[in-house]
Amino acid sequence: MTAQRPVLVARSSSHFSRIARIYAAELGVECVFEPVFDIKATQASVFADNPLLRVPSLRTPEGTWFGSIGVCRELARRATPRGRLLWPEDLSSALGANAHEVTLDALGTGVTIIMARVAGFTDDAPLLEKPFARLHGALDWLEANLDAAIASLPERQLSFLEVSAFCFLTHLEFRQLGSLASHPALRAFCAAFGAKDCARTTPYYFDKPPAA
Ligand SMILES: N[C@@H](CCC(=O)N[C@@H](CS)C(=O)NCC(=O)O)C(=O)O
C-alpha cells in the first residue's frame, strides 16, 4: 500500500472491476491500481487472497474486500458523497429488483463466456449456447425495462444499478459478446451515462505486464 491508499486489485478489461473503478472515480477515493495479468491463475495470492480467484478486491490496512459490491460499499465509507448512493436493497419494486438481477446475472454470464474462450472453447461450443441465449434475453429485457427502472429511482449521486448496467453494456462490445445495434434505448443510456467524468476516465483496456 502507498501512503495508506487502498489498493484496487483488478483488471482494466473487466466489467466487475470497472464498477469499482467508477465508484472510486465518482467518489474521489484515490486507489493504487494493482492489475492481475493472468486471469487463469489458480493461486489466491494473485487475487488479493480472494479464494474465489476473481477480481476486483480492495486491500486496505483494515482488511480486504472481495467483489464489486463489497469494494464499492467500502469506497463509499471512505468518501463524503455529495448525494445519495443507491444500493440493491433500495430497489423495492419488482421492476428495479429484476433490473438488478438481470444485469448482475448478465455480468456473470459474460464471465462464463470469456473464461470458456480463455480455456479454448469457440463461441459455437454447445456449452455456450445457453449463456449466449441468456445474454440476448437479458439485452431484450433491459431494452424494454431499464429506462423505466432507472426513472423510478429517487434523486442520487450514483446507483449500483446504473453503474453495473453501464459496465455490462459497454463491455459487450469491448469483448465482442454482443451488440447494441438493435437496442436503441440501451445505446442512449450508455451515451448518457458515458458522458459522466467517472465513466469517461475509466475506459476498458487490456493491462500490459511491464516489459521483462
Ligand atoms: N461477484 C464478483 C464477480 C467477479 C468476477 O466474476 N470477475 C471476473 C472478471 S470481470 C473474474 O475475476 N473472472 C475470473 C474467473 O472467473 O476465474 C464481483 O461482483 O466482483
Distance between the termini: 23 Å
CATH fold-level assignment of the largest domain: Glutathione S-transferase Yfyf (Class Pi), Chain A, domain 2
E-strand count: 6
Number of domains: 2
Fold topology:
Layout (H helix, E strand, L loop, with lengths): L6 E4 L4 H13 L4 E4 L21 E4 L2 E4 L1 H10 L7 E2 L7 H25 L10 H23 L6 E2 H15 L9 H11 L2 H4 L12
Parallel strand pairs: 1-2, 5-6
Antiparallel strand pairs: 1-3, 3-4
This protein binds glutathione.
The site of glutathione has 13 residues, from helix 1, helix 2 and helix 3.
Detailed description of the structure:
It is built from 7 helices and 6 strands. It is globular and about 45 Å long. By secondary structure, it is an alpha/beta fold. The mean pLDDT is 97. The strands form 2 sheets. A 4-stranded mixed sheet has the order 2-1-3-4, covered by helices on one side. The chain folds into 2 domains: 7-83, Glutaredoxin, CATH 3.40.30; 85-198, Up-down Bundle (Glutathione S-transferase Yfyf (Class Pi), Chain A, domain 2). Glutathione binds at residues 14-16, 39, 53-56, 67-69, 111, 115.
In brief:
With 212 residues, the chain is of the alpha/beta class. 48% of the residues lie in helices and 9% in strands.
Observed structural traits:
about 210 residues; alpha/beta; single chain; Glutaredoxin; 2 domains; Glutathione S-transferase Yfyf (Class Pi), Chain A, domain 2; binds glutathione; two-stranded parallel sheet; globular
